[in-house]
Automatic annotation (TrEMBL):
<dbReference type="GO" id="GO:0003677">
    <property type="term" value="F:DNA binding"/>
</dbReference>
<dbReference type="GO" id="GO:0006355">
    <property type="term" value="P:regulation of DNA-templated transcription"/>
</dbReference>
<dbReference type="InterPro" id="IPR036390">
    <property type="entry name" value="WH_DNA-bd_sf"/>
</dbReference>
<feature type="domain" description="HTH crp-type">
    <location>
        <begin position="39"/>
        <end position="87"/>
    </location>
</feature>
<protein>
    <recommendedName>
        <fullName>HTH crp-type domain-containing protein</fullName>
    </recommendedName>
</protein>
<dbReference type="InterPro" id="IPR036388">
    <property type="entry name" value="WH-like_DNA-bd_sf"/>
</dbReference>
<dbReference type="InterPro" id="IPR012318">
    <property type="entry name" value="HTH_CRP"/>
</dbReference>
Length: 148
């Protein structure tokens, strides 16, 4: 699965993934603003308040998203209010994609969940970090079955 088409995601997964998709959408907007205001080397000097105004949210939310974007290698902070965009496409490189690819892999071969993380990575084409993100999200947000 190279390209991720969200229209092809079954409805039950789309609802489950909605919070993550919304988070990735805001990440993408932030990167788009940085990229639009950056020089040829991808360097941009922007305040978080400015970014928040452009993307329609508040500064603390932008700050949280920027921290995650830095952690996951999408941007690099060069100083206060100064960033370099390293990867522009959140949809193909973000958490939602990792979760969907992992779910598709497990759906195709349920035995994957019994493998080590390294073996799962080899089987799915995801990195160990992407699998951990997917498993963490699934554990936190998967609908719980009611015991009788």
């Amino acid at each position: 699965m190279h390209e991720l088409d969200f229209e092809q995601i079954p409805a039950k997964f789309r609802e489950f993934l909605k919070p993550m998709m919304e988070r990735d959408a805001l990440d993408q907007k932030i990167i788009d603003v940085m990229a639009a205001k950056s020089d040829a080397d991808g360097f941009a000097r922007l305040s978080q308040y400015y970014i928040a105004e452009i993307v329609g949210t508040n500064q603390p939310m932008v700050s949280n998203h920027i921290k995650r974007l830095i952690k996951h290698g999408f941007i690099r902070q060069e100083g206060r209010g100064a960033y370099t965009v390293l990867k522009r496409d959140v949809w193909q490189n973000g958490a939602t994609t990792s979760v969907v690819k992992y779910l598709h892999s497990v759906n195709e071969d349920g035995s994957i969940i019994n493998l080590t993380l390294k073996e799962q990575a080899e089987r799915t084409g995801l990195t160990v970090e992407q699998i951990q993100v997917a498993q963490g999200y699934i554990s936190a947000f998967a609908p719980r079955t009611q015991s009788k």
